[in-house]
């Protein structure tokens, strides 16, 4: 499955580069209309491949938690502020005096948006919902909301933050699900 995704991206880029080369040959400039044909875009002739990597050494308990099916975050011992996703340092106290706490997972939906125009690298997912919920502990969490029917999603509804496996890649992450009423 992952291989076929990669093949799909490769094909997309191969086609894009071919089209760009054709445009440059025909017009002398790497300028072409956007997907909707509305506006002209300049396409950089250099291709940049980018894959983010971030040090997680000081927040590895968070990832160990995901493997246990638990969502942990950090709370500053000095000022009591929660950080989600977890941070090893408190920017208010300028200290690294943190407690690890398991979050309740209980939240109330503040806002959401259904994403049906997706970036290329997310294009293999069904339409997904990006949501922000206020957690019982008093901090906000941004996460996908897994809902069978997006039309039933309402601001103010109770949601539960839980560990899920993101398919088809198969890695552990967290998402909201509607809480059982
Ligand atoms: Zn603090």
UniProtKB/TrEMBL annotation:
It comes from the Archaea. InterPro entries: ChsH2_C, ChsH2_Znr, NA-bd_OB-fold, Thioester_dehydratase-like. Residues 63-98 form the ChsH2 rubredoxin-like zinc ribbon domain. Residues 100-162 form the ChsH2 C-terminal OB-fold domain. Signal peptide: none annotated. Transmembrane segments: none annotated. This is 3-hydroxybutyryl-CoA epimerase. It comes from Vulcanisaeta distributa (strain DSM 14429 / JCM 11212 / NBRC 100878 / IC-017). The lineage of its organism: Archaea, Thermoproteota, Thermoprotei, Thermoproteales, Thermoproteaceae.
């Amino acid at each position: 499955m992952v291989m076929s995704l990669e093949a799909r991206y490769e094909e997309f880029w191969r086609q894009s580069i071919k089209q760009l080369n054709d445009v440059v040959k025909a017009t002398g400039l790497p300028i072409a209309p956007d997907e909707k044909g509305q506006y002209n875009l300049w396409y950089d002739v250099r291709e940049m491949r980018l894959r983010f990597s971030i040090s997680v050494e000081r927040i590895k308990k968070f990832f160990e938690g995901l493997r246990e099916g638990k969502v942990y975050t950090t709370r500053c011992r000095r000022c009591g502020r929660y950080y989600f996703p977890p941070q090893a340092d408190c920017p208010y106290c300028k200290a690294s005096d943190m407690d690890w706490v398991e979050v309740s997972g209980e939240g109330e939906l503040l806002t959401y948006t259904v994403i049906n125009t997706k970036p290329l690298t997310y294009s293999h997912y069904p339409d997904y919902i990006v949501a922000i919920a206020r957690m019982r502990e008093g901090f906000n969490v941004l996460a996908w909301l897994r809902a069978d029917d997006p039309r039933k999603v309402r601001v103010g509804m109770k949601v539960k933050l839980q560990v899920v496996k993101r398919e088809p890649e198969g890695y552990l992450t967290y998402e909201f699900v509607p809480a059982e009423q």
